[in-house]
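protein under study:
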Amino acid sequence: MMLKTVFSKSGDRKTLVFAGIGATIGLVLLMIAVQIYVDVYSIVQDKNKQNDYIVLKKGISTLNTLGLKSSKFTPDELDELSKQDFVSKVAPFKSGNGFEVLVILSFGSGNFPPFSTLAFFESLPDDFLDVQPKEWKWQEGNKEVPIILPNTFLDAYNYGIAPSMGAPQASKDLIKSVRFQLKISGDKGNALYFGKVVGFSDRVNSILVPDNFLCYLNKNYGNGDTEQFSRIIIATTNKQNPKIKTYLKSHNYETNNELIKENMMQQIALGLFSSLSFIGIVIVFLSVLNLLLYAQVSIAKNKIQIKILFLLGYKWQAIAKALLRQFVWVYGVVFLIASILLIVLKWFWSVWLQNIMSIHVSVFASIITFVVGLAFILLFLFLNYNNIKVQVKNLFEA
């Protein structure tokens, strides 16, 4: 009780408050940096558990325009690509050859104008598709054909064609409920089918039909050629593998910018982690330095009282621990406030990733983040105790 009374009014309380605020801000930044690193690592790990898919095509040059070079992939090129260690599996895009497809869409009523356009069909093995609708099948004799559209096509209509024509926008459910006329025209004859959209793909930017339907069209209305491939798709377990970029560049293969964007996103996240960590550590250590100075000032102001305590028989260890108790509650409050702020910010961060980036991460902060924060608190308490111990021991020995 006497020790508590002696040190209860020591030091400048404003210094203690401002140092605590600084420590809280620094610790929050540090814990946020750790949480960002944990989230990015978990996203990368989740993606590495499944295949990533990259669509490849050959670059077009003037030689292609003059007909002196082909943009088709040869069987040898496909075989060589399949043997690369970064490739899990590979498949070519089969396309319609030697026939024309006219798509006619008419809602029959309402504000939607009739719409017709030339189109092309492609097909892929089912295990390369990112959607697997139960209607994805066709048998010879069926007039209704299931179709998978790329989401970019629907976006082009809703945000480009519809506004320019003064037409209403269309939802996915509406598009799925409509039947398209598919007029097939080729040297071997004509045919009429009805298309029905059964799914939308983010992976493939093509109008996809079942493989057996495309082969049937090529055989009966086209030239029968199914071995000419202008695009291929590969599955890889690590899209960030630097060998991929090197291989594509050396063979003049092109892909979309998704790979580059994901690398950039990870670099930004890691850069943010480094920056926040550095700033947080600097702020925290400056605040801890203020607390160390606060302890030294408190001891200097109570020099006489401490010596009296020595004469009364108090050990220097007991006096040092009594002084340390002033900082235990400060660091406890700092850790509590920092943890609450982290929980709130983590929730907003997770919701933002889900709504804006379509990336799902847990809304709960990682236990690793709290462990790191608590480790820093214990480190600072240790530094304060050593500082106090040295100052009080010097007085005891003087």
